[in-house]
Design goal:
9 strands, nine-stranded mixed β-sheet, alpha/beta, binds S-adenosylmethionine, single chain, about 20% helix, Rossmann fold
Length: about 260
């Protein structure tokens, strides 16, 4: 354990994750959440194949931050790596994750890399060769300094990392829910208009839009409950020395909002 980085503290009742999340997963993962989980499986497959991050050689080691019980991870995903380390504060989630059939190489670490300004620097130093997956967690926690985009650029520029995370949540049903890729640097209002075209939209902003800067990203709708929708972003970064001359990203061209956490 890094001496000056706080350890992950167990929690079962936190607003992000915890028992409520397990109950929701029990209820929705094979129904309401299933189409979104299929989209996540596609993003992860693309990341492993290299075409979602521009280009990225196979990594033998993966660190997953906030996997919970792996509800959104497709079967077999963990087995693609020789070593997988999960950073997850929920003890029930850890227990369930460790029992997945693909978890033979799984270990847990107690590093809390999300609550101090230099947490990501400690993560980078402790796992210098690992690919890092932030598993729907960066939209749940306030950045401990600046914002997540700045911290990721500052501390993980030399790592291959990817994140899917809530960008906004709302009680307004989207009129379009087809996942899309955005390769131009458009603003949040323009991205929202792809799913909620026209008119005003009341949202909770999770302060996690375009975490990989100007790199192309992807979006999908996650209906987390019957009357609550999240817009989820997929962002990925490959270290400069590993990028090819021309990034491969086969995608078409494409408010002032309050801040909040996961809705119950
Ligand atoms: C919204 S859940 C996402 C769960 C899962 N990855 C998914 O996509 O369904 C956020 C997860 O982040 C975990 N989490 C919260 N704070 C964390 C921290 N400081 N470090 C790592 N994980 C954290 C929570 O326990 C929870 O499992």
């Amino acid at each position: 354990m890094d001496s000056d980085c706080p350890p992950l503290v167990d929690h079962l009742l936190a607003p992000s994750g915890g028992l409520i999340y397990h109950l929701r997963a029990l209820r929705h993962r094979h129904g309401l959440w299933a189409p979104f989980h299929r989209v996540v499986a596609g993003w992860l497959a693309g990341w492993l194949a290299g075409w979602l991050a521009g280009w990225q050689p196979a990594r033998r080691e993966l660190v997953i931050v906030g996997p919970n019980a792996g509800y959104a991870l497709p079967d077999g995903f963990l087995a693609r790596f020789e070593r997988v380390t999960a950073l997850e504060p929920d003890p029930l989630a850890r227990w369930l994750l460790a029992r997945r059939p693909d978890a033979a190489q799984l270990a847990f670490a107690r590093l809390d890399c999300l609550t101090t300004p230099d947490g990501l620097a400690h993560l980078a130093a402790r796992f210098p060769d690992a690919a890092i997956l932030f598993s729907n967690v960066l939209g749940q926690l306030n950045a401990p300094a600046d914002d997540w985009q700045t911290l990721l650029a500052r501390h993980l520029a030399g790592h291959a990392w990817a994140s899917y995370h809530d960008v906004i949540s709302t009680r307004s049903a989207p009129t379009r829910d087809t996942p899309c890729a955005v390769s131009t640097a458009e603003n949040l209002a323009a991205t929202l208009a792809r799913f909620w075209p026209g008119g005003e939209l009341e949202v909770t902003d999770h302060a996690s839009f375009r975490l990989a800067g100007d790199a192309p990203c992807r979006y999908a709708i996650w209906p987390i409950a019957r009357r609550r929708w999240h817009l989820v972003e997929w962002a990925a970064h490959a270290p400069l020395k590993e990028k090819p001359g021309r990034p491969e990203f086969p995608c078409p061209q494409g408010g002032a909002l309050p801040r909040g956490a996961h809705e119950p």
